[in-house]
Amino acid sequence: MQNTKAANRDELFDALVRYQEERPAIRDAGTKALARLVPVALRDSGQSRVIGRFLLGLYNAQAYPFQLTDLRSLDAGLFDDCMAVLRLDNSPEQEVHEYLPRGQMIFNQLREYWG
Which stretches make up the DUF7673 domain (predicted)? Predict the structure, then answer.
C-alpha cells in the first residue's frame, strides 16, 4: 500500500515536470494559432462564425456556449489552430483575450459579430 502511494506520487510529479517543460511550446503554438484565428473570426463566413463562437466560448462559456460538433465544418488547418488554442487555455496563465494586443477590443468585436 505504501509503495503504491509513493509510486503514484512519483508518477504525478514526473507528469508535472514534463508538463512544465512542454508549457513554453504549448504557449508559443497557442498564441500563434490565436493570432491566425482572430482575423478569420472577424470575417463573414461560415468558418468565421464557428471560430468566433469557439473563441467566445473560451472567453466565457456560460454566456457563449459552443457546440463542439461545429468544429467539424472547419478546414484542417483551422481545426488544428483551434486545438492549439484549446490546449493553451487548458491550464490558463491568463484569459484567452489577454494573449493578444488589444485583446479586449478584439473580443468586444467578436461579441458584436457572433455573440
Answer: 32-114
What Cα–Cα distance (Å) separates residue 74 from each residue in 30, 52, 70, 84, 94? 17, 12, 8, 14, 26
Residue ranges making up the domain that contains 35: 2-114
Q: Hey, what long-range contacts does 63-69 have (CB within 8 A, 24 or more apart)? A: 63/115, 64/111, 64/114, 64/115
Nearest alpha carbon to residue 96 among 57, 65, 44 = 57
Total structural domains in the chain?
1
Identify the residue whose cell numbers are 484569459: 95
Residue type, 108: N
